[in-house]
Amino acid sequence: MTERVEGHGGQLALAALRAHGVREMFTLSGGHVFPLYDAAHSAGFPIYDVRHEQSAVFAAEAVAKLQRRPGLAVLTAGPGVTNGVSGLTSAFFNASPVLVLGGRAPQFRWGSGSLQEMDHLPLVAPVTKHAETVFSADDIPRAVTAALTAALTPHRGPAFLDFPLEAVFSVGDAELPPVNPVAPIEPDLDEVARAAALVAAAQRPVIIAGSDVYAGDAVDALQAAAEALQVPVFTNGMGRGSLPPEHPLAFAKARRAALSGADVVVVIGTPLDFRLSFGDFGDAQVVHVVDAPSQRAGHVQPAASPAGDLRLILTAFAEHPGDRADHADWIAGLRTAEDAARARDAEAMAAETDPIRPARVYGELRKVLAPDAITIGDGGDFVSYAGKYLEPAQPGTWLDPGPYGCLGTGMGYAMGARVTHPDRQICVLMGDGAAGFSLMDVESLARQNLPVVIVVGNNGIWGLEKHPMRAMYGYDVAANLQPGLRYDKVVEALGGAGETVEKSADLGPALTRAFDSGVPYLVNVLTDPSDAYPRSSNLA
Ligand SMILES: Cc1ncc(C[n+]2csc(CCOP(=O)(O)OP(=O)(O)O)c2C)c(N)n1
Ligand SMILES: [Mg+2]
User: Fold this and answer.
1) Which stretches make up the Thiamine pyrophosphate enzyme TPP-binding domain (predicted)?
2) Is the pTM of this model over 0.90?
């Protein structure tokens, strides 16, 4: 059954967006996109506005990542769109189904020098799955449907449309295209069986599960596969929390022992990139399970690489009919390494130092975070510590910038998380350097009644750059910030609240006040600038 829709371009777009389950827009005002606001306003469709377009795209990305549905950012022509390009690129690297709708200078006088007249497509095409200019109002529902279908089809990713002024302001009518569920990509069953047999026969197998496991709604299938084949599981990105931390196969700390001892490493739903030593695990065979053939690695030759719907592949792993090697000793050995590392972590997280070290911040935070809290990392070393010391207890609760590593996601991700989960704790872990990219958007959060807690690890430096530069050159430049800066006062001025903490004993009460406050609240923790996150590479 198709439905006919009529109205101006904004109304036609909104009809198609709603049909696909889009539930809000993130934006920063511009005349080129007024019809989209008019449509939303008259339909009671929520509009959240921000102070920099990158925050709008990051907010849309947080919605997409957390809810596994399209997130929408509406950006005005020219600078609105170009300010959103880092957000689009992050969504591309993260396979997040984000749709950006851009304004565009009028087509009928293109080339005459209209305000913000610029062709966005060459800029955004390399970082989107679908990029198109829609030249007539009648064509908007088709284009929105095509863009969202591309965004939601594995391997997922962002899409972009722009509407010339006269197209979005004029009235048209169209059939609303039917919304078809995305068909699962059927994997090659022989390849799946070969991969499963390799894992089952392995003596010391390890699974590393990443974001696409969550995005592909394959968390239960992962657990079933791990349990059936008795394989220890490590996670990264949105894969974190896929197995509850207390699960006997859930591991986080023993990664080095696991990867150096493994004979088969199964990497599921994440690329073999710098985070996984480019897929080089010594003598171990690699099984790379991906959600689409396009994601097979070009730089390594895995022993098997099934591609397709992750639920189907992992369910087939779980049902593998052949013999399985016994992994009990291997798992027990890793558990010993895990427990030893955990004891070292516990010591660091309780350490009484002056100035405070980041580990202690996370020790205190763990005491006040609820199991379903959303934690967001935006920064350098401070966020590496968050990855080390925070253990998401549920899937879909951890947001990091992903392999594009773009600073500045903080307030946008926080906004998307707050809109997604009005009743949960939302906590942003932020470097003081990272704070500079998005802290002004505390104003947007405060004004729109979207409380979040921001914990700044304030070491007065761009730590992740300063320490490596000193190690490499013996000196550093462009790596200092004002020490002791009162980021809490900035938040206070923008309509939130906050405080500065210098003593570890004051951390716990400050965090409790922050979560109880009901406003954007920044806990400005003065941390030790001499503390550097231990890294194997200086160019991490
Ligand atoms: C947009 C962007 N610019 C620059 C970088 C390079 N970079 C990575 S980490 C980092 C330092 C972050 O400093 P801060 O947020 O204070 O965290 P710290 O390392 O001090 O804990 C920089 C500049 C980046 N990743 N993204
Ligand atoms: Mg810093």
Assistant:
1) 378-525
2) yes
Tell me the per-residue pLDDT of 296-336, one tens digit each, with 9 for 90 and over.
Answer: 999 999 999 999 999 999 999 999 998 889 999 999 999 99
Residues 99-117 have a mean pLDDT of 97
Q: What is the mean pLDDT of residues 326-348?
A: 97
d(CA 280, CA 288): 12
Q: How far is 419 from 414, CA to CA, in rounded Å?
A: 9
Residue 278 DSSP code: G
Euclidean distance between CA atoms 536 and 166, whole angstroms: 55
User: Letter for the amino acid at 47?
Assistant: I
Q: How far is CA 159 from CA 50, 71, 92, 347, 361, in A?
A: 21, 10, 9, 46, 38
Residue 52 CB coordination number (10 Å): 20
**Structural domain tally of the chain?**
3
Cβ–ligand 1 contact at 407 (below 6 Å): yes
Q: Are residues 315 and 170 in the same domain?
A: no
CATH of the domain at 87: 3.40.50.970
**Gap from CA of 237 to ligand 2 centroid (Å):** 22
Binding site membership of 432 for ligand 1 (Cβ less than 6 Å):
yes
For residue 358, give the ligand nearest its CA.
Answer: 1
